[in-house]
Structure formats: structure tokens, C-alpha cells
């Protein structure tokens, strides 16, 4: 599961947990992006903070791990490179890429879209506010999956912190504490 994870929240965790159970996955690898090509660089928190928050949020689940492949690779992050790196590290694994409805909608515009579908099976999960449609996607390589709806976004979490509003229960407790300890998203 790739993401900016700025910060990781319960929407990500519920989606990952649900897909892990439904598809009987051995492992869900959370992959924080380095520099996402779709996002303005100045608006994204330093990779180490996003990586550490992802580690904290996933530490208690034996099936969840975190990969540094994207944050350690120089340059912009493209999902094709993520999948190539993960495939090289796990030559015998069958790869699934978990993504939300909003990201799935853009997938055909991603770099090397054809090869993406050769490297992994894509699982598009429901996300409140975004419709789950498979327009133009190869049906044998993409599964649309309904997961319990969590109307949470990182953008909203950041805005709440900036306004001095709580993010308790939207993100794991350790993430709330990490955000405050490092003064993330707060006004200077
Ligand atoms: P931002 O608001 O900064 O874009 P985000 O909440 O969308 O953050 P990302 O890190 O961009 O989080 O998302 C990583 C992946 O998780 C994407 O594929 C996204 O669609 C999916 N996702 C995020 N939030 C949810 C949610 N509440 N339910 C289901 N999927 C989600
Ligand atoms: Mg997003």
C-alpha cells in the first residue's frame, strides 16, 4: 500500500486490514512515497517523519511492515519503480497494490501503466466522497473492494492540527503524540 502518509490515519489502516483479511495476504507493506509527483514538494512533510509515523502506526500488527524503497530512491516517486523494487526484493511473491478509489481513477495516467498491471494485481478500495469505477481498467488485474467507510483524510488531519482541533481517534494515539512532539502541521 503506497501513500504519502502525512499523517497515516485510520482510513489507511482499516483499508489495509480489511484487504489483508479478505485476500489472505501474508504481509501488507506500507510504502511511504519519497517525492510524490502529483503533490507539490513544499507541502509534504520530511520523509523521515512520514516513515516513522507509518512504523509507529503499524508496529503492533504482525502482518504489517514498512518499506523504505521509495524514500531511499532519489527523484520523484513513481509506482512502477515501487513495484519493480518490491518484486526484486521478493522474487517469489505475488504482489497486490492496494489503493483508494481516488488514486485508482488516475491510474491510467500513471507512468508505464501497462507494465503496472503485469507487476501487480490492483485492489481499489472504497473511499467516502470518491466513486469506485473501473472505467478502462483491465478487469482481470483490478479488483474493486468495498471496505468499512472512514471519512478521514490526511489533508483534513493536517488542517485540524493547524486550527488547533483534535485528531484523537482519527489517527492512532501514537501519531497524535508524534505530531505534537515534532510540531508537525502547526502554525509557526
Ligand atoms: P492527502 O489528503 O494528503 O492526499 P490521504 O488521506 O489521501 O492524504 P494518502 O497518503 O494520499 O492519504 O493515501 C494513500 C492511499 O490510501 C491512497 O490510495 C488513498 O486513496 C488511500 N486512502 C486514504 N484515505 C483513505 C480512506 N479514508 N479510505 C480508504 N482509502 C483511503
Ligand atoms: Mg491522497
From TrEMBL:
EC numbers on record: 2.7.7.18
- According to the entry, what is the taxonomic lineage of the organism? Bacteria, Bacillati, Actinomycetota, Actinomycetes, Micrococcales
List the PANTHER family hit by this protein, alphabetically: NICOTINATE-NUCLEOTIDE ADENYLYLTRANSFERASE-RELATED, PHOSPHOPANTETHEINE ADENYLYLTRANSFERASE
> Which InterPro entries does the record associate with it?
Cyt_trans-like, NadD/NMNAT, Rossmann-like_a/b/a_fold
Give the reactions, separated by semicolons, that this protein catalyses: nicotinate beta-D-ribonucleotide + ATP + H(+) = deamido-NAD(+) + diphosphate
Alphabetized CDD domains for the sequence: NMNAT (cd02165)
Q: Organism, per UniProt?
A: Oryzihumus leptocrescens
Which UniProt keyword terms apply here?
Answer: ATP-binding, NAD, Nucleotide-binding, Nucleotidyltransferase, Pyridine nucleotide biosynthesis, Transferase
A GO molecular function term, named singly, is: ATP binding
The segment(s) forming the Cytidyltransferase-like domain are 1-160
Keyword Nucleotide-binding on entry: yes
Gene symbol of the encoding locus: nadD
What's the protein called, per UniProt? Probable nicotinate-nucleotide adenylyltransferase
The pathway entry for this protein reads as:
Cofactor biosynthesis; NAD(+) biosynthesis; deamido-NAD(+) from nicotinate D-ribonucleotide: step 1/1
The main enzyme category here is transferase
Q: What does this protein do?
A: Catalyzes the reversible adenylation of nicotinate mononucleotide (NaMN) to nicotinic acid adenine dinucleotide (NaAD).
Q: Name one GO biological process term.
A: NAD+ biosynthetic process
Please report which protein family the annotation says this sequence is part of.
Belongs to the NadD family.
